[in-house]
Every structure is written in structure tokens, then in C-alpha cells.
Specification:
The chain is of the alpha/beta class. It folds into 2 domains: about 260 residues, Up-down Bundle (Rhopdopsin 7-helix transmembrane proteins); about 190 residues, Rossmann fold (3-Layer(aba) Sandwich), CATH 3.40.50.300. It is about 60% helix and about 15% strand. It contains 16 helices and 12 strands. It has a 9-stranded mixed beta sheet with strand order 7-8-6-5-9-10-4-11-12, with helices on both faces. Strands 2-1-3 form a 3-stranded mixed beta sheet. A hairpin with a 2-residue loop joins strand 11 and strand 12. Helix 3 runs antiparallel to helix 5, helix 5 runs antiparallel to helix 6 and helix 8 packs antiparallel against helix 9. It starts with 5 loop residues before the first helix and ends with a strand.
Length: about 450
């Protein structure tokens, strides 16, 4: 006996799957960073198609008229199967685009890049032809018939039964998807140095393989066995897509921020910061500085000289600062710096639309420390410089105890010969005990006031 609420279960699950997919698609749409933009356009199309695909399921379970079953199920079968094939093709385009990384952001540039590589052109054309053959065969030969089976909740529904030859065609498409575009994401991960991007692309490959297996198991084996579990299949499908949205967003944000470092401005080698201190040119590398500043003086010029010296010696400069800070204005004026923009408006790292800027939660020292770790891992083999503006703001927003622990851990992470860092702290803004404790964490102390820049401990 079928429970009275049983007919409502499948529609509820399908609507929930549409909701998850739509939210994931919106999350992808909000991803504004410039890296992987052409892939982003492709994936947005995938989410739109996926929503329509699940709506076709609602259409199917709503068919109750025996006189119109044949025509309505024909619309459902051709429509939903064609959308599955289209999604497989779009995911393939996205995988190839992620692997080849066309320089131009336009969607059509993916295809230009594909046909510049003979191996990719052959494989992509073969996969496209296989998908097109499956779609055309479905329309021309209608290789299916309609039957009634029970779903998981005991309700009788109309379903499609494909003949063996067409099931074999779909199996070839799915296997082709598993052995061609999915491994490209793993190969793409080998092209990036950042560990989080690498891990994200590998997980993305696993997700896409899971999507193919999801359809193979539920739409192939389970349906052929006379059981309708499509609502569960699309719930799994939507859940995997939600994971995909998060992974792609994080990988794209990090890629857009870190990988642009290869395009740093070429400037003549110079040592303005060391010269101002009267030190040798080899003074900076491997040192972590605490710089006490007087806000009434143009201290930002000192920070700019620090950044310029590091850039001229081929180091990559990262600055933790805020939008209205004098340091931000000085560093963003004419030199190439990667900015972690401290903000109270975000709770996780978020792109700003500028590939050199990422918004960072100002009050979350754990996230800031994690980003310092990511910065270190993403720049292995390169010299880097960190500007932290400013310790006093951190103490006011996060409390002294949390700030002290953060500074202690940050100093440990940054203690490498290839790293130079400078942490700004406002003079006379804290109790003497707090100042002494902060100073105890740094071996090198500097001070800047109206008379200039001074070494107070080295």
C-alpha cells in the first residue's frame, strides 16, 4: 500500500535539487575574478541546463493522461537526454579550457586554443562527433519505448526504456567523458604551483567523474532494472554541482591572485630603503621588521621604498592593508603589488574584480594566517616581501591576546631566507607592556618620524 504522501516525495526532492543547482549557479555568477573567465561562462551554461534538466523530471512525474503518454514522454525523453548530452559537452569544453588556459577571457577563445593543439583538436572533435551522433540518433530513430515502473516510494510513474544499441551509444559517451575531459583537470593541476589550486582541480576532476558515474548508475543500471530513482540521481547531481561551484570559485580566486605574479613590472635594480638606512644592498632578505610609524608624517613613502626595492630585486610583494590607508594609495599608485584588502564586510577571502586584490576578513586572524601560509606555498622558489598595515588596527579589532598569538605564528611562518616582511605599528597607541611584548617578537626594529627612518634594533 502506497502512503498518501508518497506522490509528493519525488517532486519535493526535484524542487530541492533545482534550488541547490540555482544557488550554486548564482554563486558561480558572483565569481568576478579574471582567471578562468571563459571557463566560468561555460559552467554558468551548465548550471542553467542542469536546472532545466531537473524541471524535465517534474514534467515527467506530472504526466497522468494515458492518451498523451506517448507524445509527452517523447518530448521528455528527447529533451532530457539531449540536455544530458549537452551538459557532458559543456563540461568537456570547461575541462579543456581549464587545461589550456586561453589568455583572452572570451568564451570563443577556448575553441581557438583547442584547434591550435593537434592532440586536443582530434580528441575534442571526436567527442563532439560522438555526442552529436547520440543526439541525432535519438531524434531520428527514437530508440526507446514507454513503460510504467515504480519509483523508490512505491508510486507508479511512466519511464523510458532505451534499446540496447542506444544504451551502448550513451555508455560510449559517458566512458569517453571519463577518459578524456576528466583527466584533463588532473593534468591542469600539474601546471600550477599553488597547492590549494592544485588540490581544488583534482577534487574538481573527482566531482566530474562522480557526475558521469551518477548518470551511469541511476539512469543506466537502476532504470534498466525497472526502478525509478531519478529524483535521488538529480539530488546527488545537484549536490556535486554545489561542491564544484565552491571549488571552482576558490581555485579561480587564488589563481587570479597568485598567477598574475609572473607579469610583474620590470624595473631597474635599486636599493632606496637600504640606502636610507645606510645599509648594504643585501640587508633586507630574510629579515622580519617591526616599523613604528608616526601618522603625522608621510611614512607611506618609506613603505613604498621598501616595496620598490623588493620588486627591483625580483621579489613578489604582498600587502595586507585597507582601502583608505596611505599605504594602499602609495603602493597602488605605480608599482606592482598584490593586495589583501582587510575588510569588515566579508567573512572569507573574496575577489574584488581586480586580479591584484582579494578581500580578507579584517577581524579573523586565523584566515589572515592561513593566507600567509598560502602566500608562502604559492611562491615557492621566489623571493617574497610582506607588508602588514597595521598591527595597531589588528589589536583594536581582534584584541591584544589574539593579535599577539597571530604575530608570533606569522613570524614563525615567515622565517625563511627568501622572505622579507615589515609590520607597521602606530607609535604611542598602546600601553607600554603591549608594545614591549610585540617588540619581543621581532629581532629587527625600525622607526620613522619627522627626522627620517632609523634602526632602533638589529
Amino acid at each position: 500500500m502506497v502512503a498518501p504522501y508518497a506522490p509528493l516525495i519525488s517532486p519535493f526532492i526535484d524542487l530541492f535539487a533545482v534550488f541547490i543547482t540555482a544557488v550554486s549557479g548564482y554563486y558561480m555568477y558572483r565569481q568576478k575574478t579574471t582567471s578562468y573567465q571563459n571557463v566560468r561562462v561555460t559552467l554558468l551554461s551548465v548550471y542553467v541546463v542542469a536546472c532545466i534538466l531537473v524541471l524535465f523530471e517534474l514534467f515527467r512525474i506530472g504526466i497522468i493522461s494515458p492518451t498523451q503518454v506517448s507524445s509527452l514522454m517523447g518530448i521528455y525523453t528527447i529533451g532530457s537526454t539531449s540536455l544530458v548530452l549537452l551538459n557532458a559537452w559543456l563540461l568537456t569544453v570547461a575541462a579543456v579550457g581549464t587545461y589550456l588556459r586561453p589568455k583572452a577571457p572570451e568564451f570563443r577563445k577556448i575553441f581557438s586554443e583547442i584547434y591550435r593543439h593537434v592532440d586536443q583538436a582530434i580528441l575534442f572533435t571526436a567527442f563532439t562527433a560522438t555526442v552529436a551522433f547520440a543526439g541525432i540518433s535519438l531524434v531520428v530513430f527514437t530508440p526507446f519505448n514507454v513503460r510504467q515502473i515504480n519509483n523508490l516510494w512505491g508510486v507508479q510513474v511512466f519511464s523510458t526504456q532505451f534499446n540496447f544499441s542506444y544504451l551502448l551509444t550513451l555508455l560510449i559517451v559517458l566512458l569517453f567523458f571519463l577518459i578524456y575531459p576528466t583527466p584533463l583537470l588532473i593534468l591542469a593541476s600539474r601546471k600550477v604551483s599553488n597547492r590549494d589550486i592544485k588540490r581544488g582541480l583534482i577534487i574538481l576532476a573527482a566531482c566530474w567523474a562522480a557526475i558521469a558515474l551518477d548518470f551511469l548508475i541511476f539512469d543506466g543500471y537502476v532504470w534498466s532494472a525497472g526502478i525509478d530513482a531519478n529524483d535521488v540521481m538529480y539530488l546527488v547531481f545537484a549536490s556535486i554541482f554545489s561542491v564544484t561551484a565552491v571549488i571552482f570559485r576558490n581555485a579561480s580566486t587564488l589563481a587570479g591572485f597568485f598567477e598574475a605574479r609572473q607579469e610583474t613590472t620590470k624595473v631597474p635594480e635599486s636599493y632606496p630603503f637600504s640606502a636610507r638606512l645606510g645599509m648594504k644592498n643585501s640587508f633586507l632578505p630574510g629579515k622580519n621588521f617591526l616599523l613604528e610609524i608616526d601618522p603625522s608624517t608621510p611614512y607611506e613613502e618609506t613603505v613604498k621604498e621598501f616595496a620598490m626595492e623588493n620588486i627591483s630585486t625580483k621579489s613578489i610583494v604582498f600587502a595586507f592593508t585597507t582601502k583608505g590607508s596611505p599605504v594602499y594609495r602609495a603602493l597602488s599608485d605605480s608599482i606592482d603589488v598584490k593586495f589583501y584588502m582587510l575588510s569588515t564586510d566579508v567573512s572569507y577571502p573574496k575577489p574584488t574584480g581586480n586580479p591584484n586584490e582579494v578581500l580578507v576578513p579584517q577581524n579573523d586572524v586565523a584566515v589572515i594566517l592561513h593566507l600567509i601560509n598560502q602566500t608562502m606555498s604559492s611562491t615557492e622558489g621566489s623571493g617574497i616581501a610582506i607588508v602588514f598595515d597595521n598591527v595597531s588596527d589588528l589589536i583594536l579589532s581582534s584584541g591584544f591576546e589574539n593579535s599577539y598569538k597571530f604575530l608570533k605564528q606569522a613570524n614563525q611562518v615567515l622565517s625563511e631566507p627568501r622572505v622579507t616582511s615589515i609590520f607597521l605599528m602606530t607609535k604611542n597607541a598602546h600601553e607600554e607592556r603591549e608594545v614591549l611584548l610585540v617588540k619581543s617578537l621581532f629581532a629587527n626594529h625600525l622607526s620613522v618620524d619627522s627626522s627620517g627612518l632609523h634602526i632602533t634594533r638589529k
